[in-house]
UniProtKB/TrEMBL annotation:
It comes from Polyangium sorediatum. It catalyses: GDP-alpha-D-mannose + H2O = alpha-D-mannose 1-phosphate + GMP + 2 H(+). GO terms for molecular function: hydrolase activity. SUPFAM superfamilies: Nudix (SSF55811). PROSITE patterns: NUDIX. Its cofactor is Mg(2+). This is GDP-mannose pyrophosphatase. Belongs to the Nudix hydrolase family. NudK subfamily. Residues 53-217 form the Nudix hydrolase domain. Keywords: Hydrolase.
């Protein structure tokens, strides 16, 4: 069951548009000194850290079994500006024509008032409805392994992983969050084994998605 083609959403920079909102990310330059176990201290050095108010994110694997008992999982297309605008000249290998358009599991940022175990479930349920169109009881969501740091060299963001069984017949239109980057996404369900094969072949490039898919497969082992 091949995935449908990714929607070819192209991003271009508009030099004439004015910035209309505060910066989403902040870069803090700090001076650090390392203290080693043997008592030695390093010389001071500078380090740049990316910060944002909503620091962490949830990742949700929504899945179901077909009539043959084969587990399927839902993926959603997404366009990521940092990838789409990545310099092709700087890349050591040729990039695909659809650079920046990725297949991902639904995910989203944890709001400030959701910084609790219960809040994470509410956040995951909201993102599932916004991005896939499933309305689920937050209590139906189960952890999918421990949280992890996706890019610890520059940001302290944690990813919190959840999974939930869903009924495909109950999927409605995604409510989305109103942002441009959530418009006109393609949603697809495919067997979990096939999704993992796409990850191994390099056609599914989002790391958090591959990690969650592998953890989901472990539930059957």
């Amino acid at each position: 069951m091949p995935l449908p083609p990714l929607p070819r959403i192209l991003l271009t920079q508009d030099p004439h548009a004015e910035l209309s909102s505060p910066a989403f990310l902040r870069v803090q330059r700090v001076m650090l000194r390392a203290s080693f176990p043997d008592g030695e201290q390093s010389e001071p050095f500078s380090y740049d850290i990316v910060e944002r108010e909503r620091l962490d994110a949830v990742v949700i694997a929504a899945h179901f079994r077909d009539a043959k008992g084969i587990r399927h999982v839902y993926l959603r297309s997404s366009v990521r500006p940092p990838v789409a605008l990545r310099s092709r000249v700087a890349s050591p290998l040729p990039e695909r024509d659809d650079l920046g358009n990725l297949w991902e599991l639904p995910a989203g940022l944890v709001e400030v008032d959701e910084r609790s175990p219960e809040g994470l479930l509410l956040c995951a349920a909201r993102e599932l409805q916004e991005e896939l169109g499933f309305e689920v009881d937050p209590r139906a969501l189960a952890p999918l392994g421990p949280s992890s740091f996706p890019a610890p060299g520059m940001v302290g963001e944690r990813h919190f992983f959840f999974h939930v069984p869903v009924d495909p017949s109950r999927r409605a239109a995604p409510t989305e969050d109103g942002s441009v980057l959530e418009r006109k996404a393609t949603i697809a369900a495919l067997p979990l084994d096939e999704a993992l094969a796409l990850a191994r072949s390099g056609l599914l490039e989002d790391e958090k998605t591959e990690l969650a898919l592998r953890r989901l497969a472990e539930l059957d082992s």
